[in-house]
Write a structure and sequence with these properties.
Helix content is 27%, strand content 22%. The chain is α/β, with parallel strands linked by helices and 245 residues long. The chain has one domain (31-243): Isochorismatase-like (Rossmann fold), CATH 3.40.50.850. The protein has a six-stranded parallel β-sheet with strand order 5-4-3-6-7-8. A two-stranded antiparallel ribbon has the order 1-2. It starts with a strand and ends in a 7-residue tail after the last strand.
Length: 245
């Protein structure tokens, strides 16, 4: 069993009737075999040097967490978008491709407030001014177990797999929080709109944010603001150590 402490934020009123965002934590115990972890866009390269360096720093902890979760029976889905050709024919890729399609429900009509950061310049904090597709696969240091894991960047494949396996709790880690993690077809917004119980692993993610843009805070603070936004409007978050206990 995983003992998760889910953190979200609710708009509340204080004793003087003033609005504020109240942090709410609730415990959830879920069987490991009914848990899935999606690894979003942890690529082998990135056009932004700062983004690539931060991924390099996260990968060792990701490996530790995924190995522990896998050993306890959790399902691991690697989702390095736009690199499926690299995995063609592998058992991990075929495991997702052969799942019978399950039609999702109509997407819920939810409010989608603007992000708290300005990422209109694509968010590089190391001086690059235009993006390009330089990734070819998942980060080579992030292990894929071909006997157990899945590989997919297709939201319908992922949804069908989750439903077939009776997954009760889905977690997502990876990059970038304000872009791919939120907006991919397997990302937070789509999964929430399809009724999937998903949470963000908040210490194993990173935003694309340039401190030279509003709200003019540090890169780490920009990532924290995006995590806070997700807790308010989309889904709870957890810390990765809860998958190690």
């Amino acid at each position: 069993m995983f003992q998760l402490l889910l953190r979200s934020q609710d708009l509340a009123r204080d004793s003087r009737g003033r609005s504020w965002w109240q942090v709410v934590e609730r415990e959830r115990v879920v069987p490991a075999v009914r848990t899935a972890v999606i690894v979003c866009d942890v690529w082998d390269a990135h056009w932004c040097r700062g983004a690539a360096e931060r991924v390099d720093e996260m990968v060792p902890k990701m490996n530790e967490v995924l190995a522990a979760a896998r050993e306890r029976g959790a399902h691991i889905i690697h989702a390095p978008s736009e690199t499926m050709d690299f995995y063609a024919g592998t058992p991990a890729r075929q495991r997702m491709q052969t799942v019978a399609r399950i039609d999702p429900p109509a997407s819920a009509d939810r409010p989608d407030p603007p992000l708290p950061i300005d990422d209109s310049d694509e968010g590089s904090d190391t001086g690059e001014t235009s993006w390009s597709t330089v990734w070819t696969r998942q980060h080579p240091a992030l292990a894929i177990d071909d006997d157990l894991d899945g590989v997919s960047d297709d939201g319908l494949e992922v949804y069908s797999f989750l439903r077939r396996e009776g997954i009760e709790q889905t977690l997502i880690m990876g990059v970038h929080t304000n872009m791919c993690v939120l907006n991919r077809s397997f990302g937070i917004k789509q999964m929430v709109n399809w009724g999937v119980d998903i949470v963000l692993v908040r210490d194993l993610t990173d935003a694309m944010y340039n401190p030279a843009r509003p709200p003019y805070v540090s890169h780490d603070e920009g990532t924290r603001l995006v995590v806070s936004y997700i807790e308010k409007f989309w889904c709870p978050t957890v810390v990765s150590d809860q998958l190690l206990c």
